[in-house]
TrEMBL record, chains A, B:
Keywords: DNA-binding, Repressor, Transcription, Transcription regulation. SMART domains: HTH_LACI. This is LacI family transcriptional regulator. Pfam families: LacI, Peripla_BP_1. PROSITE patterns: HTH_LACI_2.
DNA sequence: AGATAAAATCTAAACGTTTACATTTAGGGG
DNA sequence: CCCCTAAATGTAAACGTTTAGATTTTATCT
């Protein structure tokens, strides 16, 4: 196998200088049609593909944005990613995705790697919000957009959903149906989404004068297993809750499995609302009432903000978009 | 904002030559402890991060593998990806993921981009199997591993599951329960998985002397919508099938929705088996019988093969791993 | 045809690393 | 204390682009 052809080889074959070749591959114009054809032919003949590395070195830009998510297995993120990818492609950008498995150590590794590679910007759902480990990005002048989870003490554009409101509405819905003992399965409370959802829960109780009871608050980690365990805990309480709110999709699945295993009858003995719509929602019997988020839009918006930052380096003030989730009322909640 | 520090700046601050700095950042040893400390301190002070671009240019390697999937929204791929990512991290490799949305045009774009970036290898589930558009990779000497779908006329390592066998077992299971009119919802037949699943279906019918009936074969595209439509078609047949086999997860979901909308009662009026286990499977009533694939293993194995190729450039002969899927018998099939 | 302007093309210098090879420094033995 | 060897460090070239500025070619107008 020959060594890979470079711009030099193309230039020689087409009998021009490398500068002219460069002009052609970058569509800069100012090249005679005849010359261009000759060069194009040479490129084709040699199978020349330009080296992004060399180009990046000169241009200091990569037309690449890095995306960091905490858990690629959570279907929420692939959908957000699809939104990002689509918008990025439209603008001629390329995306690279990495997952941290909710580990800050891995997140740091990825960030460093992204910087090494010279990404033009980063879209991140961070594993740890109060984290200095993202300062490096800012020091390097790399724009950041936080999506789904905001970042403390870092002045970055943010696209989130109104977690508090979404949860408030869900809990309110339950209260209005007569529920007073409502369990909530939380995510990691050092993440805004999890925290805000708990706030929404508390506020709804307060507004309707229902005493807050610590035993109904389960501390989960956004993984299926913790939803399962948490639900069993709730079940084993002397005064069982009559309704359960689960703070994310994966935990909802775990929770529902626990319900089945306990023979705790959904929609009859216990009402249920989950944050995030999931495939199973409409297949369950009864169908699941959920708080749904505009996931695709979240991604599209995130890229759009990032792109603006990349394009106009001038300091636009920080922007925060808060999208509204929607309570999709189906059948898993019953009067109590 | 200062311009980013380079190795030169570090060298000056630490009062050494750039060669020594290079030795330190690459852990090559042969540097006096005292000097190393001085350099490390300088690196830290300046916030120096080496440029991958410049490095790649010299070394002609990136420690990066590119992963191409046809549909990031299909939960199958994120799980495979998780397997790849984990193994890659262990070996010090970094992965970049892109999704083609089943479009060959986009796939070509991505491939080109990967080459430009100098990925050391590619793991791909191609959108179009009989495709010359992957030859470029081979021409560039970039190792490829095909996962889930093989590639025609290209001599690459392959990791797939035994689609034919998996489907055969499913259909056999239905036949032994007395079903004779069995519908199948196929994926795009120019992909091996879809094709092989159809083959498995036909072979099972043949082995049990059940006549093949074209009207029970629905041509879908692996997307939810086609599963929905296909199922309605089957429902509208004069001689409705008594059982349905769906060739992938997304189409299963569509199919099940159609069942509900038609009031065609699952497990009673119609039996059902889907390829790939899905969240909803165990929540349905009755629970879904499925053909399950070892998705995580698929990814791990794929990276392993690729890594071997990258490490020992010598021409090991082509390898093909075919993993066995497993028929998980639950409740969605009933005697007929 | 000659002068001039405009268009096309070329030359050469970066960009930030790695590394073969050259040079300096340190350490030990006599 | 000097010499020799090994260890540590330095020098300089190369990797493949882009691009400013220099030069050549072409086209236009008298």
């Amino acid at each position: 196998m020959e060594s890979k052809p470079n711009i030099q080889a193309v230039a020689k074959l087409a009998n021009v200088s490398i500068a002219t070749v460069s002009r052609v591959i970058n569509n800069q114009g100012g090249v005679r049609k005849k010359t261009e054809d000759r060069i194009l032919k040479a490129i084709d003949e040699l199978g020349y593909i330009r080296s992004a590395a060399a180009r990046t070195m000169k241009k200091k830009e990569t037309k690449t944005v890095g995306v960091i998510v905490p858990d690629i297995k959570n279907p929420f993120f692939p959908i957000v990613m699809a939104g990002i990818e689509q918008k990025a492609r439209e603008k001629g950008y390329f995306t690279i995705l990495s997952s941290t498995s909710e580990s800050q150590a891995i997140e740091e590794e990825i960030v460093k790697n992204f910087i090494e590679r010279g990404v033009d910007g980063v879209i991140i759902t961070t594993a740890n919000e109060d984290s200095d480990h993202l300062k490096v990005l800012q020091n390097q002048g790399i724009p950041i957009v936080a999506v789904d989870r905001s970042i403390q003490n870092l002045n970055v554009d943010t696209v989130i959903v109104d977690n508090e409101k979404g949860t408030y509405q869900a809990i309110q819905h339950l209260i209005l149906q007569g529920h007073k003992r409502i369990g909530i399965i939380c995510g990691p409370l050092n993440t805004t989404p999890a925290f805000k959802r708990l706030i929404g829960y508390k506020k709804a109780l307060e507004d309707y004068n229902i005493p807050f009871n610590e035993q109904y608050v389960i501390h989960g980690d956004f993984q299926e297993q913790s939803g399962y365990k948490g639900t069993k805990e709730l079940y084993s309480l002397d005064e069982q809750p009559t309704a359960i709110f689960s703070s994310n999709n994966l935990m909802s699945i775990g929770s529902l499995k626990a319900l089945q295993d306990c023979n705790w009858i959904l929609g009859k003995e216990v009402s249920f609302i989950g944050f995030d719509d999931i495939d199973i929602a409409t297949f369950m019997n009864p169908k699941l009432t959920v708080v749904a988020r505009p996931m695709n839009t979240l991604g599209e918006l995130a890229f759009q903000l990032l792109h603006e930052r990349i394009s106009f380096k001038e300091s636009v003030p920080r922007r925060e978009y808060m999208l509204s989730p929607e309570l999709k009322i189906r059948e898993s909640c019953r009067l109590n």
